Amino acid sequence: MLIDIIAGARPNFIKIAPIIEAIETQQNAGVNIQYRLVHTGQHYDKKMSGDFFEQLNIPAPHYNLEVGSGTQAEQTGKIMVGYEKLLLEKPCDLCIVVGDVTSTMACSIAAKKVNNIKVAHVEGGIRSGDWTMPEEINRIVTDSITDYFFTTSKVANMNLQKAGVKHEQIFFVGNTMIDTLYKQMPRFAKPVIWDKYGLQEKGYIVMTLHRPNNVDSKETLKELVMEIIDASNGLPLVFPVHPRTAKMLETTGIEASNLYVIEPLGYLEFNYLVKNAKAVITDSGGITEETTVMGIPCMTLRNSTERPETCTVGTNELLGTNPKSVAPAFERLFAGEWKKGEIPELWDGKTAERIIKNIISIFTLN
Ligand code: UD1
Ligand code: UDP
């Protein structure tokens, strides 16, 4: 059996690493299961792509579609054309897509339209309800043509059932991003900025921002960052900046003695910082899951989340996008009033193993 594994953007690399490892374990046990790793090229900077392959020991992709950046439609179109060409030369038996980025949706469509190739969606079924986010459209479109759904929560199962997906197509397996987190935790590495900025355990805040709603307008970005600086009580704010945010942040001209703007960090360095932070303020999806597992207070600058368990079970809280909500949240943090949180069901580091065992059983490979 030949499986295509699709990855295009930073969070995808973290999610596919344990899936590849689980396939290789089964290969070594004699199961007839082969894979091709297809990198779409949606993210391409070393700090957004290559570093993750090195640090997480992901094999070099068999194919790189090298689509690069573009508008939503340009990127979708280029990925579909590139992946279709590959499938026409040599089709696969199953296409595994992960997460909710443009590469996820584009490859699932291409796979389905070439010989009705089966599609498996890892992290299927999650919904924010916010149709202004490109990711929500990616999720809805992908899930509308997915055959096998590997879900991170029971809420995702319910969303799928409400949409008419059959019970036997849904596999509640947990979270592959957390497989990687547990596996790599012993290797987390102190970043060089630790000593440079004199950081101390629980003595700084990590921030990340990259959602178009927060960073594509100079005024919005400026107002948000200013509010965070004002609310921070002078605690160091370490801000590894996503390339989408970098140019806009520069135009704001914001500077503060406790604001440390740095390039995106490698996975091992970034999560070392998160694990030792007092709190994280972010608009990322994946980071809300990692902070939940590491028990770090997390403030999310969004009005909705497709990962409700990070709030109901974990340490995450939605502050919304009004900058005025930042100060009261920091006050509660400094008063020691942040919730402690627990780890969601099946986020145990064994998700990829379960996914591949299910695939072996679906395709009766043993
Ligand atoms: C994408 C995903 C988002 C995910 C994020 C993870 C979609 C619609 N969005 O957003 O869900 O949370 O990745 O980081 O798929 N750029 C570079 N170098 C790179 C990559 C991007 O400079 O290696 C810059 C380019 O100017 C590009 C911009 O970042 O136009 C946005 O990149 P893009 O992949 O379109 O979306 P992200 O904002 O990264
Ligand atoms: N991450 C990283 N370095 C950084 C910022 C994030 O390694 O400088 C990791 C983070 O630990 C998580 C993933 O990137 O595993 C989250 O990606 P991102 O926030 O870009 O996307 P999202 O999860 O919002 O789709």
Q: Any idea what the shape is? A: globular
User: What proportion of the residues is helical, as a percent range?
Assistant: 40-55%
Spatial extent as radius of gyration: 20 Å
Q: Taking strands numbered 1, 2, ... along the chain, how are they ordered across the largest sheet? A: 3-2-1-4-5-6-7
Each distinct ligand: uridine-diphosphate-N-acetylglucosamine, uridine-5'-diphosphate
- How large a portion of the residues is in β-strands, by DSSP E? 5-15%
Q: Class of the largest domain, according to the CATH hierarchy?
A: Alpha Beta
**CATH architectural group of the largest domain:** 3-Layer(aba) Sandwich
Average pLDDT:
97
CATH superfamily of the largest domain: Glycogen Phosphorylase B
- Structure summary, number of beta strands: 13
The CATH topology of the largest domain corresponds to Rossmann fold
User: How far is the first residue's CA from the last residue's CA?
Assistant: 11 Å
Task: Give a quick set of tags describing it.
Rossmann fold, binds uridine-diphosphate-N-acetylglucosamine, binds uridine-5'-diphosphate, 16 helices, 366 residues, globular, 13 strands, 6-stranded parallel sheet, 7-stranded parallel sheet, alpha/beta
